[in-house]
Write a structure and sequence with these properties.
This protein is an all-alpha fold. The protein has 29 helices and 4 strands. Strand 1 and strand 2 form a beta hairpin. The protein binds a DNA duplex (16 and 16 nucleotides) through helix 1, helix 20 and helix 22.
DNA sequence: CTAGCCATAAACAACC
DNA sequence: CGGTTGTTTATGGCTA
C-alpha cells in the first residue's frame, strides 16, 4: 500500500517538482496539520445508561469497571505514545532541508510511517533490537494491565455473587463466562502479539502459551472471525519485515538506506521550520506528570515511583539502549546526550509509535467486542463510542487552529500536528459502522444491494460521525456525496464554498489537513458535477444541490463504492490508521455495529446510540416512508445531523422522503420549498 | 479493451 | 499583489 501511495505521490511530482515543492500546499499536507486532537467531540452522549433504570446493577458496575480499565489502558498507551512523539517532533527541524526527498515519504505524517520505512531508516540490527525492546516492554505493560483488569473482574464477580442481587443465576453465569472469555481474549491478544513477533523473527519467545484458546465466543458466530482476524492485524503493519524480496520496497530502499540519509528523509514529513525546544524540555515535563501515574501502576513493584518513564531498573529504557545509569540525574544526562534530537531517535520513536498504535488498535477491538458482548447480555446498550476521553474539545467553529493540544504536539508551522500519539488513540478505533457502508464489496456485513443507491452516506456518517470527526480517517465517500451532504444539512440547503470547507473540516478530522488538496477537489467537484448548482445570493454565491441530477448519476456509482473505498483505504494513510481501517474492513465480522439489521430490532436500536433514526436508513427494513428502497434518496439525505439542532432543516428533510420527492425519483422535482433549487432547476434539468 | 467514476494536480480567469 | 472562487484540462487508478 505504501508503495502505492508512493507512486501516486510521485506521479504528480514530474509535472513540476519545484512547483509542487514550493506550493506550500504540499507542505501543508505533508506536515499533517491539525488533526484528530481537535476534534470536537460533541459529547453527545446518547443515553449511555439513561435508558431505563437509575440504579446500577452489578452488571453495570462491572461494565463501568471494564470501561475504566480499558480507558486506563488506553490512556496509558496514549501516554506512551505522546511521550515519544515529542522527541520525534524535535527532530523534524533538522529535516526541514531534506524536504526534497521522496515526496511520498515526506507526505507521511509520523504515524504513517510504515514498517518498511522504519526499516529503511534503521539498520536491521537496530530495528531488531529496537523492536525486541519495545515488544518486551509493551508486553510487560500489557500483561500488567491485563492482570489488573482480571483482578478487577474477579473482584467484581465476587462482589456480585455476594451481593446476591436479584440476578438470575443463569445470567450471571453467562456473564461470567463471557467475561472470562473476554479476559482470555485479552490474554490472547498478548499471545498474538508474541506470535506475530515470532513470525517476524524478531523475538524468540516460546510460543508455548500462544495456543489460541477461545474461539468459543458465547453466541455470536459471526463474531468469532474477529478473533481469527486479529492475528493478521499486526503482521499487516509489520509485514515486510523479513521479506527481502518485495520489489516495490526495493526500489524505495535504493533511495537511501543509511540512517544519515534516509532518516532525514523520513523526518521531513514533519514540520519544516524550527521546532520546539530541545529534547530535555520534552522528556522531562512531558513524561513526568503524565507517565508517572500510569507508570506507577505498572511498575509499582520494583521501580522508583518518581523515576522517568524511560528509566527503570537502573537502566535506560530507550529502545535498544539499556545503558546503565546510576540515578535519574545521570539518566537524564544520558538521555539528552545519547537520545537527543536526531534522526535516529526520531525513527525509533516512530517504531514505538507503531507498536503503540497496534496495541491500541487491538485494545480498541477487544473493548468493542466486550461492549458488544455486554450489550448482548443486556447489561447495557453498547456504546460504540470509541473515543472517550482524550480529545474532543468542542471545535469552536473558528478557534479551530487553536485546538487544545499538548505543547508537545503543536508544531512550529502553526499546524497542529497529528501527534501520532494523540491521534493514535483515536485512529485505532475503527468506525463502528464503517463496514456497513464501505463493505458493499463483500463483507459479511453486506447490505442489500439496493442500499447502494440509498445514500449510505448520511446514515453512515451519522453513525460514525464521532469517528470521522476525531479520527484521521478518510471518509469512504466521494467528494460529491460529501458536498451534497454538507449542503443538505443546512436549513436552506445552500452553502458558500467556504461554508462547505468548514463543514468538511468540522466533520472530518481527515480534512483538517491536506487542505490544498481537498479544497481543490471540492471546488473541482462543485464545478464539474451538474448536480451542484451555483446560485448568486445576497451574500455572494452559494452552492445548492440538484437532487435529480445527483440521483441521475447515482446508479453507476454509489457512495462507498468498492472502488472508492479501496482508494480511500489506500490513501487512508500509511499507518496504523490504515491498518486499523483495513482491519476493520476485514473484520466486517462485527455484526453488532456493522449491520444493525442483523440484530433483532430491539437490541439493534440499543446498540446504536448514535441515532436510531439512522438505523432506519441504512437498514432498509424500515419502510418508514413507504417506497424506501431505490428511489428514496432523500431521507438519508440528512436525517442524520447527528448534531441535531437544525430543526427546521430536519423538518424539511422529513418532508422530502415522504410524498414530495421521496418516492418517484426522477420525476419528483424537489420539494416546493426549494426555491433555490427551483431557480436552478430549469436550466440544469435539461442538461 | 472501453467507458464511467473518481481523485489529484494544475493552469487560468475573475473577483475581492 | 495575493488570496479566493470557479472552470477546465490532464492523468491515472478502478470497476463493470
Amino acid at each position: 500500500m505504501m508503495v502505492e501511495s508512493a507512486s501516486e505521490t510521485i506521479r504528480s511530482a514530474p509535472s513540476g517538482q519545484n512547483g509542487v515543492g514550493s506550493l506550500s500546499g504540499q507542505a501543508d499536507g505533508s506536515s499533517g496539520g491539525a488533526t484528530g486532537t481537535t476534534a470536537s467531540g460533541t459529547g453527545r452522549e446518547v443515553t449511555t445508561g439513561a435508558d431505563s433504570n437509575g440504579e446500577m446493577s452489578p452488571a453495570e458496575l462491572l461494565h463501568f469497571q471494564q470501561q475504566q480499565a480499558l480507558q486506563v489502558a488506553r490512556q496509558f498507551l496514549l501516554q506512551q505514545a505522546s511521550g515519544l512523539s515529542s522527541p520525534g517532533n524535535n527532530d523534524s527541524k533538522q529535516s526541514a532541508s531534506a524536504v526534497q526527498v521522496p515526496v511520498s515519504v515526506a507526505m507521511m505524517s509520523p504515524q504513517m510511517l510504515t514498517p518498511q520505512q522504519m526499516q529503511q531508516i534503521l539498520s536491521p540490527p537496530q530495528l531488531q533490537a529496537l523492536l525486541q525492546q519495545q515488544q518486551a516492554l509493551m508486553l510487560q505493560q500489557l500483561q500488567e494491565y491485563y492482570k489488573k483488569q482480571q483482578e478487577q473482574l474477579h473482584l467484581q464477580l465476587l462482589t456480585q455473587q455476594q451481593a446476591g442481587k436479584p440476578q438470575p443465576k443463569e445470567a450471571l453465569g453467562n456473564k461470567q463466562l463471557a467475561f472470562q472469555q473476554q479476559l482470555l481474549q485479552m490474554q490472547q491478544l498478548q499471545q498474538q502479539h508474541l506470535l506475530n513477533l515470532q513470525r517476524q523473527g524478531l523475538v524468540s519467545l516460546q510460543p508455548n502459551q500462544a495456543s489460541g484458546p477461545l474461539q468459543t465466543l458465547p453466541q455470536a458466530s459471526p463474531v468469532s472471525p474477529t478473533a481469527a482476524v486479529c492475528p493478521t492485524d499486526l503482521p499487516q503493519l509489520w509485514k515486510g519485515e523479513g521479506a527481502p524480496g518485495q520489489p516495490a520496497e526495493d526500489s524505495v530502499k535504493q533511495e537511501g538506506l543509511d540512517l544519515t540519509g534516509t532518516a532525514a528523509t523520513a523526518t521531513s514529513f514533519a514540520a519544516p521550520p524550527k521546532v520546539s525546544p530541545p529534547l530535555s524540555h520534552h522528556t522531562l515535563p512531558n513524561g513526568q506528570p503524565t507517565v508517572l501515574t500510569s507508570r506507577r501502576d505498572s511498575s509499582s513493584h520494583e521501580e522508583t515511583p518518581g523515576s522517568h518513564p524511560l528509566y527503570g531498573h537502573g537502566e535506560c529504557k530507550w529502545p535498544g539502549c539499556e545503558t546503565l545509569c546510576e540515578d535519574l540525574g545521570q539518566f537524564i544526562k544520558h538521555l539528552n546526550t545519547e537520545h537527543a534530537l536526531d534522526d535516529r531517535s526520531t525513527a525509533q520513536c516512530r517504531v514505538q509509535m507503531q507498536v503503540v498504535q497496534q496495541l491500541e488498535i487491538q485494545l480498541a477491538k477487544e473493548s468493542e467486542r466486550l461492549q458488544a458482548m455486554m450489550a448482548h447480555l443486556h447489561m447495557r446498550p453498547s456504546e460504540p463510542k470509541p473515543f472517550s476521553q482524550p480529545l474532543n474539545p468542542v471545535p469552536g467553529s473558528s478557534s479551530f487552529s487553536k485546538v487544545t493540544v499538548s505543547a508537545a504536539d503543536s508544531f512550529p508551522d502553526g499546524l497542529v500536528h497529528p501527534p501520532t500519539s494523540a491521534a493514535a488513540p483515536v485512529t485505532p478505533l475503527r468506525p463502528p459502522g464503517l463496514g456497513s457502508a464501505s463493505l458493499h464489496g463483500g463483507g459479511p456485513a453486506r447490505r442489500r444491494s439496493s442500499d447502494k443507491f440509498c445514500s449510505p452516506i448520511s446514515s453512515e456518517l451519522a453513525q460514525n460521525h464521532e469517528f470521522y470527526k476525531n479520527a484521521d480517517v478518510r471518509p469512504p465517500f466521494t467528494y460529491a456525496s460529501l458536498i451534497r451532504q454538507a449542503i443538505l444539512e443546512t436549513p436552506d440547503r445552500q452553502l458558500t464554498l467556504n461554508e462547505i470547507y468548514n463543514w468538511f473540516t468540522r466533520m472530518f478530522a481527515y480534512f483538517r489537513r491536506n487542505t490544498a488538496t481537498w479544497k481543490n477537489a471540492v471546488r473541482h467537484n462543485l464545478s464539474l458535477h451538474k448536480c451542484f448548482v451555483r446560485v448568486e445570493n445576497v451574500k455572494g454565491a452559494v452552492w445548492t444541490v440538484d437532487e435529480r441530477e445527483y440521483q441521475k448519476r447515482r446508479p453507476p456509482k454509489m457512495t462507498g463504492s468498492p472502488t472508492l473505498v479501496k482508494n480511500m483505504i489506500s490513501g487512508l494513510s500509511y499507518g496504523a490508521l490504515n491498518a486499523s481501517y483495513q482491519a476493520a474492513l476485514a473484520e466486517s465480522s462485527f455484526p453488532l455495529l456493522n449491520s444493525p439489521g442483523m440484530l433483532n430490532p430491539g437490541s439493534a436500536s440499543s446498540l446504536l446510540p448514535l441515532s436510531h433514526d439512522d438505523v432506519g436508513a441504512p437498514v432498509e427494513p424500515l419502510p418508514s416512508n413507504g417506497s424506501s428502497s431505490p428511489p428514496r434518496l432523500s431521507p438519508p439525505q440528512y436525517s442524520h445531523q447527528v448534531q441535531v439542532k437544525e430543526e427546521p432543516a430536519e423538518a424539511e428533510e422529513d418532508r422530502q422522503p415522504g410524498p414530495p420527492l421521496g418516492a418517484p425519483n426522477p420525476s419528483a422535482s424537489g420539494p416546493p420549498e426549494d426555491r433555490d433549487l427551483e431557480e436552478e432547476l430549469p436550466g440544469e434539468e435539461l442538461s
